[in-house]
Design a protein that fits this description.
The complex is a heterodimer.
Chain A lengths: L3 E10 L4 E11 L3 E5 L6 H9 L5 E9 L2 E2 L5 H7 L1 E4 L11 H16 L8 H14 L17 H15 L3 E5 L7 H14 L5 E6 L3 H5 L4 E6 L2 E6 L2 H9 L2 H13 L1
Parallel strand pairs in A: 3-8, 3-9, 6-7, 7-8
Antiparallel strand pairs in A: 1-2, 1-4, 4-5, 9-10
Helix pairs in contact in A: 2-3, 3-5, 5-6
Chain B lengths: L2 H7 L17 E2 L6 H10 L4 H16 L21 E2 L13 H10 L1 H7 L4 E5 L2 E6 L2 H5 L3 E4 H7 L1 H7 L10 H9 L4 E5 L9 E6 L10 E6 L4 E9 L7 E3 L2 E6 L4 E9 L4 E11 L4 E8 L4 E4 L2 E4 L5 E10 L4 E10 L5 E10 L4 E10 L6 E11 L8 E7 L4 E11 L2 H8 L5 H17 L4 H15 L5
Parallel strand pairs in B: 3-7, 6-8, 7-9, 8-11, 9-12, 10-13, 11-13, 12-14, 13-15, 13-16, 14-17, 15-18, 16-18, 17-19, 18-20, 19-21, 20-22, 21-23
Antiparallel strand pairs in B: 1-2, 3-4, 5-6
The chains are: A alpha/beta, B alpha/beta.
């Protein structure tokens, strides 16, 4: 069962309004799922709720991973279990270097799994970090820069993927990791993500555009409209969306939405 | 070593405080201050007549000078309940072997042996009110560098001493400078001859060890023309049952073309009033830097200052304050631009936690005629929770129109988005908050010698422990 992240009838809201209205989705390790949808459909909300952002209240449903409902866990406990969220808007932490931050995060995870873990040695960590930075085409001095502080859009997104590569999660949610990237940065980021694909990891790629899916071929595509998944299919669904737009799906659900 | 290594190292050693060694003293003055006590102190030290006169003048000024009424509340400070002089051993130890065992243990826990291994330069350590252990590297001596206790400085270099002592911070400067001038004991005397560059930091450790002992160290540092040096003073104090007073005076002269940095890490226990006057006179094309980290104390008032006396003089003050429950840390800096083409920079980082209050109070004064003076002031405050408070008092007195003055201030809170981001990577809320605080003070920490950076980061970590409910 630890190979499945199962989202069941998920309802979530902010103080103002309900955003997720009964979302069901099953992710398996080894699979890449793409989640597409128009603005305001609830894509980022889903990402935040899965990771435990305090601004959202879950009103119904559960998310089962490794035999437990992770919605009852703190964000750090979800991270320790093997969940990872690549943020759409990564937050700057001035004065904290990428290397220091990542080493602390890695050690926190290792200690959660084994309280006696002495943590990764400085040398070993440097080796690991250098290797992963090379994968993303980041220069060595990047490790000494302050986390997201003054980073370009491309650097921020690369840093998210770098963190994923170092923390080695079992399920990764990528929230619009392609937004704001030029073609070269997109390639580098996609290359990094593809390198992390494998039977031991599942992906949920949240995106507006098909563009990133040309680089990262998904196994499944889902369309999210107004807090529910309205269609699922193979990669061809993304092509159909590209050709027709969201209009058809949005119209389909409108009567339901107004009835609710 | 880079700053990142420093932070990586910070969990390597366990830091302890709150211990103290048994009291063994040769002489301890009665509580309270009188002309008689002042005379006794001077007599014990075998001082020349002019110093006794200086002390007595200072005592009289102290008595009639009112308490300052513009800063933190000092009304609980009782001058009659303080011991003004303690002599812990017969004389200053010349070698390690002569240092008494319990004092050695104190030093051991402070990490001095390691420091000695790493820094063969002189270790001047103050135990109670006197230097007991003081060694200067032979190499420094051969270059003509003087680094000794202030008492030895007065005895061995009377002319040099008298030329500068009390000239940077006069008796009348403020009530606490007057008090220090009356009862001073312990501290360092440093002289670096023209053109001599001292590579290793000169270090002194200060530690209070007995309840109700006022510590009144006095330091006089002269950096002659074209010379360079760095002086580091780190303080850790055990806990006390009653209030304690620390009133130091630091006088520094940086002559033409010289560079000097004075670094302090202050961690007084939370019952100590820490009221310090630190001032530097900076001459032509010379640079003076104060790096000042304040973590402990009940009340701290400390505004390191630079008087830029000749063209090309540059002064920098980089300060950090961390105030937790019940603490008031009022600090910042003061720069007086007296000559043309002088430049200065003040950077202040204040962290307030719980009911703690860390504030910036600073003055930039440009006198008429100090044309093309440039000054930049940046003060940032970080509030850890809803009750914390920080105030900013940035005074500017500009008498010269042809100047460039910048001032930026920011107040930030440890934000929900920052915390969530860090927690989503596996850090607990406490670890995340600590990391944000450590990052906030990093611009200061990176300026410290490595051991001190490690210690400061560790102290901040300790301060943050158990802070998340």
């Amino acid at each position: 069962m630890s190979d499945i992240l199962d989202i069941r009838n998920l309802h979530a809201r902010t103080a103002e309004r309900e955003i997720l209205k009964g979302l069901n989705l099953t992710l398996r390790k080894g699979e890449v799922h793409a989640l597409m949808g128009p603005n305001g459909a609830g894509k980022s909300t889903l990402a935040y709720v899965l990771m435990g952002h305090p601004a959202y209240e879950v009103t119904e449903g559960e998310v089962i991973f490794k035999g437990q409902n992770i919605l009852e866990l703190d964000p750090e406990e979800r991270a320790h279990l093997g969940l990872f969220l690549a943020f759409q808007y990564p937050v700057a932490v001035p004065g904290v270097t990428v290397a220091n931050f990542l080493r602390a995060a890695l050690n926190a995870k290792r200690r959660a799994q084994n309280p006696d873990d002495p943590g990764i040695s400085v040398l070993e960590f440097r080796k690991l970090l250098t290797e992963k930075m090379r994968l993303l085409g980041l220069s060595p001095d990047f490790a000494g820069r302050y986390l997201n502080d003054g980073f370009s859009g491309g650097e921020k997104k690369k840093t998210e993927v770098l963190q994923m590569a170092v923390l080695d999660p079992e399920f990764a949610i990528l929230d619009e990791t392609d937004s704001g990237l030029d073609i070269d940065a997109l390639r580098a980021v996609a290359h990094g993500i593809n390198a992390l694909r494998g039977p031991e990891r599942g992906f949920l790629i949240i995106t507006h555009y098909k563009r990133i899916l040309d680089h990262i071929r998904p196994d499944y595509v889902h369309i999210l409209v107004d807090g529910r998944i309205v269609a699922s299919g193979g990669p061809e669904l993304a092509d159909q969306l590209e050709a027709e737009g969201y209009k058809r799906w949005v119209q389909d659900v409108e009567p339901l939405a107004s009835a609710a | 070593m880079t700053t990142q290594d420093v932070a990586l190292l910070r969990d390597l050693e366990e830091y302890r405080y709150g211990w103290k060694s048994p009291e063994t003293y040769v002489y301890k003055a009665p509580k309270g201050l009188s002309e008689e006590v002042v005379r006794q102190i001077s007599a014990f030290k075998g001082e020349p007549e002019w110093m006794l006169d200086f002390r007595l003048r200072a005592y009289r000024h102290f008595i009639q000078r009112p308490m300052p009424n513009w800063g933190p509340d000092l009304s609980d400070l009782n001058f009659d309940d303080i011991v003004y002089y303690v002599k812990p051993a017969e004389r200053a130890g010349r070698s390690w072997d002569e240092v008494p065992e319990d004092i050695k243990r104190t030093f051991e826990r402070l990490g001095i042996p390691e420091a000695e291994q790493k820094f063969l330069a002189g270790v001047g350590a103050q135990y109670e009110s006197e230097m007991v252990y003081h060694r200067v590297k032979e190499e420094l001596e051969s270059k003509g560098v003087i680094f000794k206790s202030i008492e030895d400085g007065l005895r061995d270099h009377p002319d040099l001493f008298r030329q500068y002592f009390g000239k940077v911070v006069p008796i009348e400067d403020n009530k606490f400078a007057a008090l220090n001038s009356a009862v001073w004991s312990g501290g360092s005397f440093v002289y670096v001859p023209p053109g001599v560059k001292v590579e290793q930091p000169l270090q002194a450790y200060f530690r209070l060890n007995v309840a109700n002992i006022g510590q009144f160290e006095r330091t006089l540092i002269i950096i002659d023309e074209g010379a360079e040096a760095h002086y580091v003073e780190g303080c850790t104090a055990p806990l006390y049952s009653t209030d304690s007073l620390h009133t130091g005076v630091i006088e520094i002269i940086v002559k033409r073309g010289a560079r000097f940095r004075y670094t302090t890490i202050q961690n007084w226990s939370t019952n100590v009033y820490n009221l310090v006057t630190q001032r530097a006179l900076v001459y032509g094309d010379a640079t003076m830097e104060w790096v000042d980290a304040n973590i402990g104390s009940k009340v701290t008032m400390k505004y390191p200052s630079c008087y830029l006396l000749e063209p090309g003089a540059h002064g920098e003050i980089l300060s950090m304050a961390f105030a937790k429950d019940g603490q008031v840390i009022d600090n910042g800096g003061k720069v007086i631009h007296i000559a043309a083409d002088t430049t200065s920079k003040i950077v202040s980082k204040s962290v307030s936690k719980g009911t703690g209050r860390a504030s910036y109070r600073g003055l930039v004064r440009v006198q008429r005629g100090a044309k093309r003076a440039r000054s930049n002031v940046v003060c940032d405050a970080l509030l850890i929770d809803e009750h914390s408070r920080s105030d900013t008092y940035p005074y500017m007195e500009i008498e010269e129109p042809d100047v460039t003055i910048g001032h930026e201030a920011s107040v930030s809170k440890v934000g929900e988005e920052q915390l969530f981001y860090l927690r989503s990577r596996g850090l607990s809320e406490e670890e995340a908050t600590t990391m944000i605080v450590a990052g906030f003070i990093e611009p200061l920490v990176r300026e410290l010698p490595m051991e001190y950076a490690v210690e400061l980061n560790r102290l901040v970590q300790l301060e943050m422990e158990g802070s998340i409910g």
